[in-house]
Amino acid sequence: MAEDKKDIILSIRGMSKSFGRNKVLKHIDLDVKKGSIMGLMGENGAGKSTMMKCLFGTYQKDEGTIILDGKEINFTGPKDALENGVAMVHQELNQALKRTVMDNIWLGRYPLVKKGLPFVSDKQSYNDTKKVFEDLGISVNPRTIMSTMPVSQRQMVEIAKAVSFNSKIIVFDEPTSSLTETEVEHLFRIINMLKQRGCGIVYISHKMEEILRISDDVTIMRDGQWVATRPAKELTMDEIIRLMVGR
Fold first, then answer.
1. 92, 167 contact by CB (below 8 A)
2. Which pLDDT score, from 0 to 100, does residue 179 have?
3. What is the pTM of this model?
4. Most buried of 79, 147, 169, 230 (most Cβ within 10 A)?
5. Nearest 5°: phi and psi at 213?
6. 226 - beta bridge partners?
7. CA distance 189 to 184
């Protein structure tokens, strides 16, 4: 059991969140192990994205604790989360579309020509972006303007940005909604590579086939509550539906 606890990179305990009188999360618990993929499922409004936004600092939870790598954390916002090893690839991309790809990756943390001087090293930004892309098998010119690319490529840029922070936890929220079959396969290769590096992955999707294929464990939520966490290999689609809808 001690060995199991040592493997846990993220632990959420008793998380609750309300918007006015609407209680969206009701004392949720969740554990994610190092080098594993936790599938997260539930109908619309089950609280999946809200829980992850509370982790990421987009929302502030009302109750509960979040333990990351053995330390309790409460992020003040997404920037705080990213700088401390938690990244989230959102379904709705929020990018600077008139800027280049490399601008979007390094915005707010550009490499400088010389430490202490406020001059950005364009060459370093380019080379660092190329390095991340090569590592992930992404073939995009770092100087491309974001608005000229299809949504699928922009999403790959967002994933590369998450990886560039050397994140301990990466949350993927409905990542395949705008991807072709070939792009989905590429995404899965990237996720498995991150898993092998010891990263903890939370994968939110409505697509049961994907969840059962990519996940090690699956957590199912209903009406803001935890329902079950099971190894993916023990679940069937019928069982997932039964747990999601409660009948």
1. no
2. 84
3. 0.89
4. 169
5. -80, -45
6. 221
7. 9
Query: What percent of the chain has pLDDT above 90?
Result: 66
CA distance 103 to 105: 5
Greatest alpha-carbon span in the chain? 63
pLDDT in tens, 179-224: 888 989 999 999 999 999 999 999 999 999 999 999 999 999 999 9
How far is 6 from 35, CA to CA, in rounded Å?
12
Annotate the chain with three-state secondary structure.
CHHHHHHEEEEEEEEEEEECCEEEEEEEEEEEECCCEEEEECCCCCCHHHHHHHHHCCCCCCEEEEEECCEECCCCCHHHHHHCCEEEECCCCCCCCCCEHHHHHHCCCCCECCCCCCCECHHHHHHHHHHHHHHHCCCCCCCCEHHHCCHHHHHHHHHHHHHHCCCCEEEEECCCCCCCHHHHHHHHHHHHHHHHCCCEEEEECCCHHHHHHHCCEEEEEECCEEEEEEEHHHCCHHHHHHHHHCC
Per-residue pLDDT tens over the stretch 101-139: 999 988 877 666 666 655 677 888 899 999 999 989 899
Tokens (6 digits) for 92: 């709705």
